[in-house]
Amino acid sequence: MQVPLYQAKAEFFRMLGHPVRIRVLELLQSGPMPVRELLAEIDIEASNLSQQLGVLRRSGIVVSMRDGSTVSYALAGGDVAELLRAARRILTELLVGQSELLAELRESVPEPSRAGTVADPGRH
Predict the structure, then answer these.
(1) Cβ–Cβ < 8 Å for 20, 44
(2) Which residue among 47, 70, 78, 87 has its CA within the 20 to 30 Å range from the CA of 102?
(3) Share of the chain above pLDDT 90, in %
(4) Conformation bin of residue 31: beta by default, left when phi > 0, alpha when psi is -120 to 50
(5) What is the spatial distance between Cα 116 and Cα 120, in angstroms, rounded to a whole number?
(6) What's the gap between Cα 69 and its chain centre?
């Protein structure tokens, strides 16, 4: 039985739903990196990084390459980098909208009365 596309997309985004995986993908945008450099950039245990790299590798988003005893990882394609750029644009737009809302909320705060309490326009 074939999985519906919406379910496959949900599973894809669930797979991306870990901060370490996102950080690895961000780092790999600049090109292949050995595991030791990934470890230096991401402050986690080697076993945890290995686990997260395994998830990314099994999903086909990253590929691993061995050169002697050095294992490096790279993005499997440019679409992942584009997805991360799109996420950055979306988050930027959301944060701009939130900061505008915050500014509006701050502007609409009623002035305190002389007694130090907030004026209630419904009372006379």
Answers:
(1) yes
(2) 87
(3) 67
(4) left
(5) 12
(6) 31
